[in-house]
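ARCHIVE CARD
CATEGORY: sequence design from structure
SOURCE FIELD: tokenized fold
FIELD CONTENT:
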């Protein structure tokens, strides 16, 4: 979370809104929020002896994270290593105003992924650790 927040402070100076910038940014944010939600829901939580719910990412949770980070990284590397003209043509054809829109989209996508994943895991952990949930898990007649 700290790395994504630091990247946002360093690189997210504005959110371009011209042309189709907002549509592209919103589509990217929605896609990464969905990936974060899948990862958050796929993370395995259990109640430990001290009533804290540690999490463990399985293959689905890990692959959504790796896929999102990998796709953003691949686009950034491609843009710097020869794909710039193709991205520029795509931008012109789809009314994206420039590189600032791409940077904003990539940073906001990372934020959406991480924040969605963390909020879902946090809420699931609170529900798991709640007294009502522990009453359901405790066998009848036995006090925890």
């Amino acid at each position: 979370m700290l790395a994504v927040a630091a990247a946002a402070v360093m690189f997210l100076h504005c959110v371009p809104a011209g042309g189709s910038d907002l549509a592209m940014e919103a589509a990217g944010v929605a896609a990464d929020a969905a990936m974060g939600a899948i990862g958050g829901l796929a993370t395995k939580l259990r109640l430990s002896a001290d009533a804290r719910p540690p999490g463990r990412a399985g293959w689905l949770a890990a692959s959504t994270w790796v896929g999102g980070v990998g796709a953003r990284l691949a686009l950034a590397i491609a843009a710097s290593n020869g794909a710039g003209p193709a991205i520029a043509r795509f931008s012109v054809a789809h009314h994206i105003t420039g590189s600032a829109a791409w940077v904003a989209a990539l940073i906001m996508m990372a934020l959406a992924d991480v924040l969605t994943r963390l909020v879902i895991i946090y809420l699931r952990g609170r529900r798991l650790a709640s007294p009502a949930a522990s009453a359901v898990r405790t066998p009848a007649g036995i006090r925890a």
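CARD ANNOTATION: The chain has a mean pLDDT of 87. The CA atoms of residues 88 and 122 lie 40 Å apart.
SHELF: design records, drawer C
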